[in-house]
Prior knowledge:
- The chain is of the alpha+beta class.
- It has one domain (about 1-89).
- Helices cover about 35% and strands about 15% of the residues.
- The strands form 2 sheets. A two-stranded parallel sheet has the order 1-4. Strands 2-3 form a two-stranded antiparallel sheet.
- Strand 2 and strand 3 (about 30) form a beta hairpin.
- It is globular, with a radius of gyration of 14 Å.
- It starts with a strand and ends with a helix.
Amino acid sequence: MLLITLEKTEANYSPTTLYNDYAVSEKIFHWQSQNTARPKTGKGLSYIKQKQTGESILLFVCARKTMMNSIIQLPMSSWAWRIISSIME
């Protein structure tokens, strides 16, 4: 599960985490990986190989950090259930 905030400011994020994330279309999302992810190892490799391994990546996108803070405070079971429920609708 990836938590993405679209509207980032230097007041709330460091220069190394001001990723340029945005929707390209209804089905395509441009997401810049964490600056420590590498395509040949660890998380970076797992993102690239997700179809082959049968894993799914869920994107949870909020416009602003204040919205994300509200979501993060939910208990994980409730949080995951809401995401899964919204996908199933």
